Amino acid sequence: MTSNASSLAAVTSLTLDGVAQLSEHRWIFFFVFFALYVFVLVSDVLVIYVICSQRSLHRPMFVFVAAVLLNSLAGSAAIYPRLLSDLASGLRQVEVAGPVCISQAYVMTSLGSSSFMLLAAMSLDRYVSICRPLRYAALMSRAALAALLLLCFLLPAALVGGAALQAARLPLCRTRLRRLYCDVYSFVSLSCGGGAARLLQVYGLLCSAATVLVPVIFVLVTYGRILFICLRDSRTISSKALQTCVPHLLVLVNYSVSAGVELLQRRLHGGSEPAASILSSVLVIIVPTVCNPLVYGLKVKQILTHLKRLLRIR
């Protein structure tokens, strides 16, 4: 019994079956993903550059926008290059080392959680700006901004880090992962750790509640309060202020739909539908990374104005 457990724990590589599902038309997928990655890199960097270079945009709202796009860039770097390399290699069986897989899973999960927390911080900024304008400078000081940014990145990193470390210690019964990339939930589903695996899944749900569900509820409550105040006051300045919330709500819907599709696929199909699993993982890659720069670049008037000047578009 002991030797069996030790042999399972000694598994050092996993096979990503997701790439094999795309191998028949791999060059089409390669150029599609390559074009999307170039677009993400160029558009995110452009918007971040505009925010950093224009003193008029050195305000908390735009700092949070830059943080969201930096987060998106980091997530893209954790997925696109490896995926493009796997598609170009032409291998039907793509093997990835266990530590590399769990590292990618950690980065993806912690950055995804940080995105929701950053959106919650944005909603707080909008609430104070619209509903408590006289106290905005004091409440959203540089120190408060730095503290919020640290909380948005360090809390998910610490919580997910604990889950990733425990997942890395679980013995694996299976080594085939029906994904395009690694994530903590799928990694744990391969294990035969019994009670330890179930306990880790419960811990994962609690982490998700703390870093995803609570921020989403906070955003909805905060923007609901903002909407109520703007409709009650019925002033032009209130309607203009309300318009600054629209991009953040669009990004929240963007992330929530992607995460919702992923969770529904896991609960309804599990590992029995490889095509559905691949589709959900593709959506998680494409939708947030591509839509974020479009929303902030086109829907935020101040950023769009400076982008047009930079690109000399009239």
Description:
The structure is a single chain. This protein is mostly helical. It is built from 13 helices and three strands, in the order H-E-H-H-H-E-H-H-H-E-H-H-H-H-H-H. Strands 2-1-3 form a three-stranded mixed sheet. Residues 1-11 have low confidence and may be disordered.
Short description:
By secondary structure, this protein is mainly α.
Task: Give the SSE layout.
Blueprint: H1 2-9, E1 13-16, H2 17-22, H3 26-53, H4 60-89, E2 94-97, H5 98-131, H6 136-139, H7 142-168, E3 176-177, H8 184-189, H9 195-233, H10 236-243, H11 246-268, H12 274-299, H13 301-311
Parallel strand pairs: 1-3
Antiparallel strand pairs: 1-2
Helix pairs in contact: 3-4, 3-12, 3-13, 4-5, 4-12, 5-7, 5-9, 5-11, 7-9, 9-10, 11-12, 12-13
Instruction: Give, in spatial order, the strands making up the sheet with the most strands.
Output: 2-1-3
- Given the C-alpha coordinates, what overall shape results? globular
User: Could you say which structural class the secondary elements and strand pairing correspond to?
Assistant: mainly alpha
Tally of DSSP β-strands: 3
Please give the share of residues in helix: over 70%
Largest sheet: 3 strands, mixed
The averaged pLDDT comes out at: 82
Low-confidence stretches: 1-11
**Tally of helical runs:** 13
How far apart the termini lie comes to 73 Å
Strand content: under 5%
Radius of gyration: 21 Å
The topology string of helices and strands comes to HEHHHEHHHEHHHHHH
